[in-house]
From TrEMBL:
<dbReference type="InterPro" id="IPR003819">
    <property type="entry name" value="TauD/TfdA-like"/>
</dbReference>
<keyword id="KW-0408">Iron</keyword>
<feature type="binding site">
    <location>
        <position position="146"/>
    </location>
    <ligand>
        <name>Fe cation</name>
    </ligand>
</feature>
<dbReference type="InterPro" id="IPR042098">
    <property type="entry name" value="TauD-like_sf"/>
</dbReference>
<protein>
    <submittedName>
        <fullName>Fe(II)/alpha-ketoglutarate-dependent arginine beta-hydroxylase</fullName>
    </submittedName>
</protein>
<feature type="domain" description="TauD/TfdA-like">
    <location>
        <begin position="130"/>
        <end position="320"/>
    </location>
</feature>
<dbReference type="InterPro" id="IPR014503">
    <property type="entry name" value="Clavaminate_syn-like"/>
</dbReference>
<dbReference type="InterPro" id="IPR053447">
    <property type="entry name" value="Alpha-KG_dependent_hydroxylase"/>
</dbReference>
<dbReference type="Pfam" id="PF02668">
    <property type="entry name" value="TauD"/>
</dbReference>
<comment type="similarity">
    <text>Belongs to the clavaminate synthase family.</text>
</comment>
<dbReference type="GO" id="GO:0016491">
    <property type="term" value="F:oxidoreductase activity"/>
</dbReference>
<keyword id="KW-0560">Oxidoreductase</keyword>
<keyword id="KW-0479">Metal-binding</keyword>
<dbReference type="InterPro" id="IPR023966">
    <property type="entry name" value="Arginine_beta-hydroxylase"/>
</dbReference>
<feature type="binding site">
    <location>
        <position position="148"/>
    </location>
    <ligand>
        <name>Fe cation</name>
    </ligand>
</feature>
<dbReference type="GO" id="GO:0005506">
    <property type="term" value="F:iron ion binding"/>
</dbReference>
Length: 342
């Protein structure tokens, strides 16, 4: 694990920077703030930037944990009942800015038209009615381990989480590809395009507003949902592993993979990989003020179940998707500087 704890000196440098930026914008979703984030990130403490750059370039681990960000839970107020509208008048705005700047050292943040109404920064919190649904807002059911957005060719290089509340020390589960015994697996079979990855439930239309109020955005979003439905109806075959055969990257989400019709060798290789991942899974208990950056090419992640209270004290995280190749999704975005994939 790649780890760094902020010092009091770091906090003294960060406080006026974050306060000043917060005066200039009203919400973390402000397009100009997101556009300027990579420039503003240059004002972060040098040792913090170097730490994140080491993680980005050297790949010392698939898990990067940054601790020590000040979070006053009384000032935060209650955990929202839903992610809708939680970005307006946010009590965690300065923490969100810090999260955005750190993420921008690793790459470009982006969102999905089909997730949380196209927002860039997501809320991860329990929602009534989702308790046993395979989605990040569930609670009583484990969130199965997965590559984030494994089904999509524009999935991010990193998925990042910032903890605001975790009163029950709910465990985030992670497996680092570097911990796997690749010599015991049929790597060649896993590099073959024989595996079907289905869209996950967070991209389904029932989890979105009926309309955003913008007819152009609504048309583009409808097109996105139709494309996702087409992938459900006619799954595309893809490899699970890619990159270097001796130190491979991976993309898989077993809960959303249909094994019907797979070649016998592919099925055996997949099952052996899943068993190896299960054996090497470890847990991380995020505390308020912890930021974790998960290499989405080199790790799978999930979450243990917990019992929600729905009284304002529940677990509350923020989430960002980060790409190192924004141009790679240009055909999915309406403009070169637009951050939402349709």
């Amino acid at each position: 694990m790649h780890e760094l704890t902020l010092t009091p000196q770091d906090g003294a440098q960060l406080a006026p920077l974050l306060t000043e930026i917060a005066k200039m914008y009203d919400t973390i979703e402000d397009a100009e703030l997101i556009r300027q984030a990579r420039v503003l990130a240059r004002s972060l403490p040098t040792r913090l930037v170097e730490f994140l750059e080491d993680f980005r370039l050297g790949e010392p681990s698939a898990l990067c944990v940054l601790s020590g960000l000040a979070v006053d839970e009384e000032l935060l107020g209650p955990t929202p009942e839903h992610w809708r509208d939680s970005q307006y008048g946010s009590p965690s705005f300065t923490q969100e800015i810090f999260f955005l700047l750190c993420a921008s050292v690793l790459g470009d943040v982006f969102g999905w038209a089909t997730q949380q109404d196209g927002r860039i920064m997501h809320d991860v919190l329990p929602i009534k009615g989702h308790e046993n649904y395979e989605i990040g807002s569930n609670s009583l059911q484990h969130l199965s381990w997965h590559t984030e957005d494994a089904f999509h060719p524009c999935r991010g290089d990193y998925v990042a989480l910032m903890c605001l509340k975790n009163p029950d020390a709910v465990e985030t589960t992670v497996c680092d590809a570097g911990d796997l015994d690749w010599s015991s697996l049929d790597v060649a079979a896993l590099f073959e395009p024989e595996f079907t990855q289905m869209p996950d439930n967070s991209h389904q239309p029932q989890n979105a507003r009926q309309s955003t109020g913008d007819p152009v955005v609504d048309r583009l979003r409808i097109r996105s949902f139709e494309l996702i439905q087409s992938w459900n109806d006619d799954p595309v075959k893809r490899p699970i592993l890619f990159g270097d055969s001796l130190d491979p990257y991976m993309a898989l989400d077993p809960y959303h993979m249909k094994t019907d019709g797979w070649p016998e060798r592919s099925l055996r290789a997949f099952e052996a990989l899943c068993a190896e991942i299960e054996a090497k899974m470890r847990s991380v208990r995020l505390r308020p003020g912890d930021l974790v950056f998960i290499d989405n090419f080199r790790a799978v992640h999930g979450r243990k179940s917990f019992r929600p209270r729905y009284d304002g004290s529940d677990r509350w995280l923020k989430r960002l998707n980060i790409t190192r190749n924004l141009r790679g999704s240009r055909g999915w975005r309406p403009a070169a500087d637009h951050r939402v994939i349709y």
